[in-house]
Amino acid sequence: MADIIQLLPEYLANQIAAGEVVQRPASVVKELLENAVDAGATQVQLIVKEAGKQLVQVVDNGSGMSPTDARMSLERHATSKIRTTDDLFRIRTLGFRGEALASIAAVSQLELRTKQRDQDTGTLLLVEGSQISSQQPVACPDGTSISVKNLFFNVPARRNFLKSNAVEMRHILDEFQHVALANPQIGFSLFQNDLEVFNLPAGKLSQRIVSLLGNGYKEQLAQVEEVTPFITVKGFIGKPESAKKSRGDQFFFVNNRFIRSAYLNHAVLAAYEGLLPKDTHPFYVLFLELDPKAIDINVHPTKTEIKFEDEKTVYAIVRAAVKQSLGLHNMAPSLDFDGDVNFAPIQPLRLAGTEQHPFTQDFQPDALASAAARAATPRTTPAGFPPARTDAYERQLPPRPTEQAKRELEEFYKSLQQVKVPDVEREATATGVPVPSATAFTAARPAPPVPEAEDESGASVAAAAFAGLPPLETIPAQSAAPAPELPLRESSTGPGNKVLQLHQQYLLVPVKSGVMLIDQVAARERILFEQYAQALERDTSASQTLLFPRTVTFTPQDFAVLREVEEALRALGFRFTDFGKNTIAVEGIPADVPARDEKELLEGLIEQFRTGSGTVKLDRREQLARALARRVAASAAGSRLSELEMTALVDKLFACQVPNYTPDGRRTLVLLELGQLQAFFTR
Description:
Elements: H1 10-21, H2 25-38, E1 43-49, E2 55-60, H3 67-72, H4 100-106, E3 109-115, E4 122-128, E5 131-138, E6 143-149, H5 156-160, H6 165-182, E7 187-192, E8 195-200, H7 205-213, E9 221-227, E10 232-238, E11 250-254, E12 257-259, H8 262-271, E13 284-289, E14 295-296, E15 307-308, H9 311-328, H10 367-376, H11 392-395, H12 403-417, H13 424-431, H14 438-444, H15 461-465, E16 500-502, E17 506-511, E18 514-519, H16 520-538, E19 543-553, H17 556-564, H18 566-572, E20 575-578, E21 583-590, H19 598-611, H20 620-635, H21 643-654, E22 669-673, H22 674-681
Parallel strand pairs: 1-7, 11-13
Antiparallel strand pairs: 1-2, 2-6, 3-4, 3-6, 4-5, 7-8, 9-10, 10-13, 11-12, 14-15, 16-17, 17-18, 18-22, 19-21, 20-21
């Protein structure tokens, strides 16, 4: 039988490796930026065209490469960072184990220019699909410039899987942001289609955060620093009031490498417990430094997930460091034994003005003379009140009334007792009117009202429930045949079926077979979703114009998401125009959306659009309609509805195509039949 196992050609092996390393243009950006940092660059420039599909170029002023190194860098498993097995457990550099450039060159047209500082000329390499077409000396500045053109030109199936330019540019911004935050000592700049997006000078981490994420963080940063023999935690966190609906501004770096960790994120949220509004996420940029032997960075191909040798200790230290920072910056309640912020400090008590208090350390002998002089000095005070005491402790006590004030108060109460009360019985007898007896009064007096349960607004639930019932003696022994129940799609709120609201959360609708419980928030979400879906099909929707346009500034990542869904937002009724860098001016919002905080609404939409797809891939417009419906419905949670509003809500729900469930599958109503109700009382 002939042998069937053979070695793969070099170009094919590189393309297979590229499938793991190069998934999209952002993967190229990540590898090239990390190589520039490892090369010791102090200035790094990123140039992108057509969201990286046409060009990704990284220019740095690092150490550069010799002609031989430049040629070797394009070979698989060729690296300057690993020599022995032990080096794998001491890695502090970035990069992808020597496969990055070889994988990128296998699926693109690559141009490499590099020059070392002590050389007169540099080297130019032209590569196309792993094949080196040219290598020659060239005049170029110190450092390295790598241009990746026409990504996936030889793998059309991979190119067809790329998303829109807005989506791909958002991923590029994410990778650029990670590297720029991790290295504030390096200057970075980003150009997109010949327009400057970022120009970040070298500086401190706090300056880099503000210049990268916006001026909104300028007054919202609190420093974190905790040094232990096992781990060092440094960085910045945001104040609770700066928390956002979107969760894009959370960054963990382990040994200067960006990672994602739900476990550590939970540690930070645990430190913020009780300080954050509902469904908001705090900002943080935290750097963890620990022995490379205590972590495993080769868990994930992109190295964004790592394993800790002792996860529980890392969790505890991160949580304690964040909690300590919140306490030091007066953002969390803490015990202060030196004084209470709610009361004036109590001064040490002088015993009889002559004795030293046992806890007083700064007692002066001259205080005796000054105390005696103050006691001998006559003081004028308002009538009826004693002279003011100089002791700080007694100043906090209410003034004691004098004897004269007591007498005036007694006379006032005596005058109240002299008020004449008419004698009803004597006057009635004189006029000949019979006076009813005490028994008659008791019989005529109505019975005391039975305590009724009240809802949150104070309205009587029992009174509302029994308001439409006839008197007890008029109820026949056997009720007449019930009216036929309306179909599910039709209104069930006729004149005899009064809708009741329970705890400002549920609606009780009497029906033929029992009672129906409706979740008013879930019902509103279903109604709004179908309205928005119809508006998106028509590409138009009613909009309410704001009296004054309101500006909203986003982070670069959120602004990129906004560009993705801009067309759908306009179809829903949003009206806005560009108003500077990462800023829009909101001129109108959908007609049925309450005009409150447009920034919070748009941030919530962006966050739900980013994370709401789940395992099922939805159409962009449907996903946005779901997000907006949930946001608007949630904003009206806990509101009291009038009888007309409750009836309209029920009618609109049963007019929906799918009234029983919300768009994401939650139930909107529950039907309790008479048999189930009777079972509650016959057990």
